[in-house]
Amino acid sequence: MGETSDALARSTGVVAAASAVSRATGFLRTLALAAVLGAAAVGDAYNGANGLPNMVYELLLGGVAASALVPALARARLRGSMHSNVFTQRVLLAMTIAGALVTAAAVACAPVFVAVLVRDPEQSRLATLFAYLLLPEIFFYCVCATATAVLNVRESFAAAAWAPVVNNAIVLATVGAFVLVPGPVTLTPATMTTAQTLVLGVGTTAGIVGQALWTLAALRRTGFRWDWRVRPVPYTLRPVRRGVRMLTWVGLYVAVSQIGVVFVLRAAFSHGGVSTFTYADLLFQVPYGVLGVSLLTVLMPRVATAVASGDRAALITDLGRAARYSVVALVPASAAMMLLGPVATTVVFVGRVDVDAARLIGTALALAAFGLAPFALVMLQLRVFYADNDMRTPALVNVAMVATKVTAVAVTVAAVPTEWVVVMLPAAGSLSYVVGAVCGHLILRRRYGLLGFHTVLETLSRVLWASAIAGVFCVAAVGGAYLSLDDPRQAAAVALLVAVAAGAPAFLLAARTIGITEIGHARQLLRG
């Protein structure tokens, strides 16, 4: 067990470091894009179009990559190296062919996708141009996700974890090139030049290309060689029929998800808030991306192997460990976002957008913060279901989640003042994560018996107390700064600096006093 824990610590530490750098450079990329595009019509057109490749990929291919590939590849490895190699070659070729076909169809349908989301003619024209340039990303998303799954099953985590940094670096260089291109003083959908559109669109797609090439190079360094001569389907149709049944549920999952995405994006476009929603959602993902993604990346092959071999004890151990570490990392982050969200976004975005727009992003972030830990738990639970070849349960849980989100958005649009609709959209997503976490836990408990989550609740209770103590310092810092300084950005900067300087030590001291032992374990993971 000691060896296993040490290996987990080393792997998680490396992935967490890569994730931290990835999120940091991604944050810089977001700031750079906000600086040149703003949070109005042009920013909305770009962010909306840049979301289309993700929507189509998740709808037609991403669900397969996220749900089926790692468990299937892990089971293939249990049957020996020869079977594993043939199966892996077949998966790579099949996903590449599927990615190419889906990408070609998506690019052809670019005007249709934009018409569903955007009503303003000039904004629609610009968003359509961006869509033509950005939808080819789908193919490279597919290649990157498939190669990453192969690397993870081979317990090679670091290289793939660094791949998004390559993407972020290319997009930052693209923003620099965009600034150098001659263009209008005031950027609007009507005044943005073709050269500016091409630089931004091609450069953004180039970032995903670079990410995919980095991942493929990492796969090659492991000694794996891609053989294009393999048959993309097996000689017998029995596994194909079984796969089709499984993928029907995966298709339901992703189709329902995209209904929720379209519903939210239409509400955001209608209220001029796509950029506000996008930036708030990106910030929401940062804490989860640093630790939550790191843990899932390392634990997913272990969970798949434990399920495939019927090792319930190992499964419960890894499930409980991931849940406790997620709570320790994400609940304090949620508290910080609730208390400091508008302050932080004022510091970060003012100068790129106006003060009111920056505070709007922070308010949206603060209102959604309660869903951070439930989101991590949902992601963890889904991986357990997928590892057990159960595609049906995640699909049904997702129906409940999306129904919750759509209902919350509909009520918000109907009952909330127009200026508050945009800031409530991320909160609707967080509410759906709470519903999903509760449903997933009840189903797992019925399937596997007691999950040992009383220890998770005990950890949560201690973390809440420690976060509340640290929160007092944060509130005092914010109040004092805004009472002492008139300039909003200066006041926000001082408040954020003092809140972090006082709140973080207060949390760690309270955690040590209360007895949150997972803090020490998390440090070991990050050092590993």
Folded structure, characterized:
The protein has 528 residues and is mostly helical. Helices cover 85% and strands 0% of the residues. Helix 2 runs antiparallel to helix 3, helix 11 packs parallel to helix 16 (454-484) and helix 12 packs parallel to helix 15 (418-448). The longest helix is centred in the N-terminal third of the chain and has 38 residues, at 41-78. The two termini are 16 Å apart. Mean pLDDT is 81; it is low at 1-5 and 235-240.
Largest sheet: none
**How big is the Rg?**
23 Å
Q: Order of SSEs, N→C? A: HHHHHHHHHHHHHHHHHH
Overall geometric form: globular
- Helicity level: over 70%
Instruction: Report the average pLDDT across residues.
Output: 81
Q: Please report the number of helical segments.
A: 18
Q: Roughly what fraction of the amino acids lie in strands?
A: under 5%
- The structure class reads mainly alpha
Spans of at least 5 consecutive residues whose pLDDT stays below 50 are 1-5, 235-240
Q: Name the assembly state.
A: single chain
The number of distinct β-strands equals: 0
Terminal Cα span? 16 Å
